Amino acid sequence: MVLVPKEAVSIQPVGVVVSDFKKVSRAYDYHRESVIYMREDLTDALIGIEYFSHIHVIYHQHRRQDWLELVEWKKEQPPITLPVAGEPVCRGVYSTRSPSRPSAMGSCVVELIKCEENRLYVKGLDALDGTPVLDIKIYIPHYDAFPLAETPLNCCMRNELSATSRRLHWDTINVGLALGLRTGARALQALGISRGEASRAAVAGGHFFAQGIEGTTGCSILRGNMIFEELNTSPGQWKLKLAGKDSEAEIWLNDHIYSGASEVLEAGENILFAAVNKNENAQSIIKKPLG
Asked: pTM for the whole thing?
């Protein structure tokens, strides 16, 4: 058994935040500017920092209790699980960006506007006025940015519905996604199973088509139970094989050009699918995925 140390760790602040952001709020304007006053004995430690456009700011959430009162947290202990805004689900605090961390440690990547003596002028710091700063680190894209990092879709959303719509582009690019949703749902229906019960999928088609099938069936490249063949063609060559416990569904799409995702969602199966078959031998999908 590994024992986690329970002794408190003492950290001397290296600076303090001066900001117009004085009240705890559920939202923050990341275009707002603030100043970090570093300890004067650390002024020389800032030499060269002006050549960097962004920095990491690590700080102490000294007014975490104010945030708990804002969200009307009634329990004695700080939140470990939290309801996700706009979704009927609950997540652990470490899978959120909640401003109430169990360690009371906050962090933020900010734009460095300028450095004057022991003062750092920054934009986008989500720390309140008077927040103790614990550390400053330079932001280096080569080490700190991961363009292929994976994030659940709900974390990509913002408060406004228009932002969600722009990300999904239902009216333009996601005809393929809508086709995948319909195809995956039809395959589950043919097999008489629910999401997560399929053992394996083989998909031929576009990337968004595969994404829609992932969403409905639960099979995924990341989980190792989906085979994907990219086809940059019209839907007439797209297909899905989905294996259940003891049977397999095969679906071929019709060669049809759609005006948008709404047409896909409203279309009858005779328009969407060229064939929907169910085979009792589910092993063929493993041995011969897309034949």
From this structure: 0.61
